[in-house]
Design goal:
single chain, Aspartate Aminotransferase, domain 2, disordered N terminus, four-stranded mixed sheet, 2 domains, Aspartate Aminotransferase, domain 1
Amino acid sequence: MQTLAKTESSLDIFEKLESEVRSYCRGFPTLFAKARGYTLWDAEGTAYLDFFAGAGALNYGHNHPALKERLVRYIMDDGVTHSLDMATEAKRRLLATFDEVVLRPRKLDYKIMFPGPTGTNAVEAALKLARKVKGRQTILSFTNGFHGMTLGSLAVTGNGFKRGGAGVPLTNAVSMPFDDYFGDATDTAAYIERLLEDGGSGMEMPAAVIVETVQGEGGLNAASFGWLKRIEAICRKFDMLLIVDDIQVGCGRTGTFFSFEPAGIRPDIVTLSKSIGGYGLPLALTLLKPELDVWSPGEHNGTFRGNNLAFVTAEAALREYWSDGALEAETIRKSERIRTFLTDMIEKYPALQGAHRGRGFIQGIACGAAELAGDVCKEAFARGVIMETSGPSDEVFKLLPPLIIDDEGLADGFARIEAAIAAAVAKRKGSERE
């Protein structure tokens, strides 16, 4: 009979009992047991630098001491855990802090909706509300956009593989080319505007446009600020709502709290999830301009809208990191280090056929050679770095470390990632010679 320790250290149980749909564990085949800051340890004690950060859900790292202390104290004091949408002290504190620390300093006037615990809940609420307000069915989305895995969110997602899993037609959405989709050949904002103004284009007037400023899953395509401003202007011209999906690239991932701030735009609706919970606990918010708050009580509902444990850590994270500009300044500074490292790798390893993608703490290299990005990630894991691919063909390897990573951690990660690039390139050259 196997001992408990031996059973716990085995991956066999996952193969035997868990669905084939599991994904990340295939790229990182070890049994993780402990995490702190930007480091994970497996059951054998091997340490891994986390350049994945829960797909952007861990901007403040694993088990942040200040957030953990607040969470444990709340639990030990018998604080409310589950409350549907009832009023609780934890929710009151989060609402007040979000208004004080995030909205008022940016002169933003949003009502806050708790749509459910995940990002796709926030998107579904945004799409439903836009259709209700405008009385139209169509949502305009973009090539390579990703907005979630439930049917409404999937309809505005570009990835063919993920869309194919729906099993039913995905309707009431139209996909338009993202910024620079055709390179310099076509001005995609002008293209969209022309279709909307032409009564013969066959396009139904959309209720809203949904856009990511940086396409986190779609290949780290970063929209120019000028293009974003033009999309906003098109929304105003044609009486459409502008929805910015900031689920992966918000909460400081690009430097500013909201990724759209440098572009100078004012979305009608904003979706937040992932790192808004602070500690990795599930939480999502849909922010909406007050005049759009036309919901009837209970018209959009969900059992787990009241995740008070996440309210506690979210409020603590906002207080800890967004009461001043220190984290933003450090993120911007370190972002330049990431950019410099990646551009150096493109120059040093021409076999990557690389192009730089992204901004802030979500950057990577698009590899021209097929499957090379995946090979780099495999070699990185073998060297103790967790990182993943992005893009419709997994052609981009991306760096997504927690915002709290220090310069020493970045330097260590860069050294290991360069070794992984060198190994992947060498193996590719060796196989080509055979």
